[in-house]
Amino acid sequence: MAYALPHLLLSSLFLLPFSAVAQTKGNVTIGASLTANDKSTPWLSTSEDFAFGFQQLQDKSLFLLCIWYHRVPDKNIVWYANEGNAVPRESKLVLANGGLVLSDSRGKELWNSGSTADEVAYGFMNDTGNFVLVRSDSVNIWESFKDPSDTMLPTQIMESGGVLFSRQTETNFSRGRFQFRLLLDGNLVLNTRDVLTNLAYDAYYISGTYDPSDSLNSGYQDGLLSGLSQKIYVSTLAGVEGSGACGYNSVCSLDDYRRPTCECPQGFSLLDPDDKYGHCKPSFSQSCDDDELSSAEDIYDFLELLDTDWPTSDYEQMKPYNEEGCRKSCLQDCFCAVAIFRGESCWKKKLPLSNGRKDTGVNGKALIKFRKAESNLRCFTYKELLEATNGFTEELGRGSFGIVYKGVIQMGSTNVVAVKKLDSLVRDTEKEFKTEVNVIGQTHHKNLVRLLGFCEEGRHKMLVYEFMSNGTLASFLFGDLRPSLNQRTEIALGIARGLLYLHEECGTQIIHCDIKPQNILLDDYYNARISDFGLAKLLMINQSHTSTATIRGTKGYFAPEWFRSTPITVKVDVYSFGVLLLEIICCRRSLENHEIGEGREILIDWVCNCFQAGRLGDLVENDMEALNDWRTVEKSLLVGIWCIQEDPSSRPTIRRVTQMLEGVVEVTMPPYPWLSSTTN
Ligand SMILES: *[C@@H]1O[C@H](CO)[C@@H](O)[C@H](O)[C@H]1NC(C)=O
Ligand SMILES: *[C@@H]1O[C@H](CO)[C@@H](O)[C@H](O)[C@H]1NC(C)=O
Ligand SMILES: *[C@@H]1O[C@H](CO)[C@@H](O)[C@H](O)[C@H]1NC(C)=O
Ligand SMILES: *[C@@H]1O[C@H](CO)[C@@H](O)[C@H](O)[C@H]1NC(C)=O
Ligand SMILES: *[C@@H]1O[C@H](CO)[C@@H](O)[C@H](O)[C@H]1NC(C)=O
């Protein structure tokens, strides 16, 4: 049984066959040492399933003393010393008679395995993943199993009073906010804690395995223990301190695997963008000034979230109340950030919101106040943009909508912009323009190109975006220099995350409808940024258009449902993403014009043929880097094949795609994508 905390590895718990070859591995003699550098070779267990040694971290000057699955390519780390704190290069671990001692290059001690009255005779890296220090009479005097980090391995026992800590993040092993504890009374609990003081907040999960009939540690009395248990049950309901399982203002829900996921509600964004379990900051603050209060209805509005509540942030409850009264009361109240309306009750809540949860058991709705219509969008005059682009001279690109020009505008820290002239707007979308622009203006995600403003003067309709210095993915991918596999997979993941935001996380769902490498731009840091989202409605990229267009019958980026009467859903983007992912991994266009033979002109046909023949390796046969990292490449290709399933319902959601690419869920073998094509 494996216990998993957030940030914890999911797939690490398969056991590998034991090697039959006799080895002297496993034993570590007194005086043996390990040094933290690139050349360091770890101490292996007999079967070589587990290794004990230094792992280099993302910051290449830092190392972690740890135990990991040695024969699994991801080298999943299952235990670490020094509370997960990294140590500098050239730090040294020595096995002495007194135990393990870790010191930096100048000899300053950083960690040790604890003092013991007994002399250590030797160390042993057991095939169970347990590193033990053994006395001359073969008794273990120290075990890594007795000092767990964030993982329990098979055969490892958690003792009463035991605790696991989550990591800070996936790659920072220092102790994070989550704890998993076996209390002295027999209850297993999950709770968050204050990182600075280590104060444990009330549990958000309790196993309920308290058993007063169990023989208890002497020194503890029945009454005291049952009192402790009681307190935890009661205080879970009250739960007044700490932010809950997610950060302040965040909302926790359980995913398909019953693991907590945290999300900032609309109008809030992560305080630390790299810590998705962290706090969410509001995008605006309310003022209690008279002029704001008197025009509150013009300035603020509510976003509705069903089945969502922050049960511990109330400052006022009103009953009996109807929903209209509830809205009005919160709107007119400059302290009110959220109102919950359920039954005949209205609760008003103030910031920061804590213990946020989304669950069908919650009932009722949350009304989240937001400042409307500022969108930070600037309205430009035609003259301003004419000047900014020097008379629309420097062309950056052309798309289905018209031409994009480079321009310079003084606007906060930004000054180089991309001005998109929308020439081919459909006539009756005029009144939709403002609506759509507002929807686009409310999107904020690091994998989307940000809209800064717009111009709407008669027939002149333009959108002003931040400028992306590294051009389109098309030129990056199909240029002279092949980007590294790592760069390519990062870009693919960025695009998936941007799409996930558009499909599931922003206020109004946006189906992109035109995902292709020309519409993915790269910023200064080569992050993928999706552009042209939200324009599908304006540009009539819709079914009636495409069914007559020349793309009919080709297998470009368009999902088959475009050519049928089946409804257009977010799954069309998943399809296009799949094609794009295959292009990114194979580093070639979905359609090659020139003759390359062997049925390779259409990428997805080639992929399907290779897939059916069990020869996926042919797709990257000239790419040594890809062949050397076949596991990553194969995973990505299989995800791509899942996405291009002909039947939209067989395609995964973009959330699932993201999880598969991140490696948090397993990628299973997809069916052959075009099986049903003959029956349709
Ligand atoms: C490890 O060392 C101990 C003590 O020297 C010895 O008893 C044991 O057999 C050794 N184990 C292996 C697998 O070599
Ligand atoms: C290694 O683990 C096995 C299985 O739990 C156990 O029987 C053995 O005694 C362990 N060896 C040491 C040296 O702890
Ligand atoms: C991990 O996070 C802690 C606390 O934020 C920080 O002090 C430490 O430097 C980080 N470690 C690494 C290796 O980035
Ligand atoms: C990518 O952007 C950075 C930052 O603006 C710039 O220094 C670099 O030259 C760009 N690379 C290419 C290939 O344009
Ligand atoms: C396609 O766009 C046109 C023009 O906006 C619109 O009239 C039509 O209803 C749209 N069709 C679909 C299926 O969305």
Automatic annotation (TrEMBL):
Record domain Protein kinase: where: 390-675
Location of this chain's protein in the cell: Membrane
Gene3D superfamilies: 2.90.10.30, Phosphorylase Kinase, domain 1, Transferase(Phosphotransferase) domain 1
Coiled coil: none
Highest taxon in the source lineage: Eukaryota
List of residues binding ATP: 421
Record-listed E.C. numbers: 2.7.11.1
Major location (coarse): membrane
Record keywords, A-Z: ATP-binding, Disulfide bond, EGF-like domain, Glycoprotein, Kinase, Lectin, Membrane, Nucleotide-binding, Receptor, Serine/threonine-protein kinase, Signal, Transferase, Transmembrane, Transmembrane helix
Signal peptide feature range: 1-22
Domain Bulb-type lectin: 25-146
InterPro entries linked to this entry: Bulb-type_lectin_dom, Bulb-type_lectin_dom_sf, G-type_lectin_kinases/EP1-like, Kinase-like_dom_sf, Prot_kinase_dom, Protein_kinase_ATP_BS, Ser/Thr_kinase_AS
GO CC term, one of those recorded: membrane
A Gene Ontology molecular function term of the record: ATP binding
Entry-linked PROSITE patterns: BULB_LECTIN, PROTEIN_KINASE_ATP, PROTEIN_KINASE_DOM, PROTEIN_KINASE_ST
A Pfam family: Pkinase
Catalytic activity: L-seryl-[protein] + ATP = O-phospho-L-seryl-[protein] + ADP + H(+); L-threonyl-[protein] + ATP = O-phospho-L-threonyl-[protein] + ADP + H(+)
Membrane-related topology note: Single-pass type I membrane protein
Protein name (record): non-specific serine/threonine protein kinase
Organism: Nyssa sinensis
UniProt lineage: Eukaryota, Viridiplantae, Streptophyta, Embryophyta, Tracheophyta
